[in-house]
Predict the structure.
Amino acid sequence: HPPYTFHHERRKVEERLPAARRYIVEHGINETFSPHAADVGVIVQGGVYNALMRALALAGFTDGNGASRLPLLVLNATYPLVPEQLVAFCAGKRAVLVLEEGHPEFIEFELAAVLGRAGGACAVRGKATLRQAGEYGADVIVGGLVRFAAEFLPAWSTAAADAWQDEVDATRARARELLAAPVPARPPGFCSGCPERPVFSALKL
């Protein structure tokens, strides 16, 4: 109980968090991909990276080798964030798009605070451009990239993204037609071999 816990808090802030940040930097945990010069970029959680690359390809925002035309900062360690990495990535950029699953938007909030303290003029876009909650699949990210490009990259063509979205909408409409009737109810159950089965059987007994 306080005040004893304040000692742990001081050690966390003064010793453990700096040590964790040094480890992240020294071991290259977070990655930066900047094959093309651009004054906007994307900051993404490591777990969303594959979906982002798929979305970039669908939107036509990759080059002939499949590399992103937008600089990327991939946060394979989302806590603690390293302020120096964030500031360095955003230096010279007009805007960055933050891809962060979950709610609330912790990374987006901390990035805005870090840039504010550093005096950076980089605009931060995130859930307002994408989606407030839920999984960030390729369809969600493509829509977010189109809105981000419309605001900060008006010269970039989004024809590929629009065509793909039209195809997705048509496929969904066709699926709704085929599944007009309710799907038969199926009671929940465990797969055979599931380790929870004997536990629930024991509870029933």
About this structure: The mean pLDDT is 91. The longest strand covers residues 40-45. Helices lie at 4-26, 49-59, 83-90, 106-118, 138-152, 159-178, 196-204.
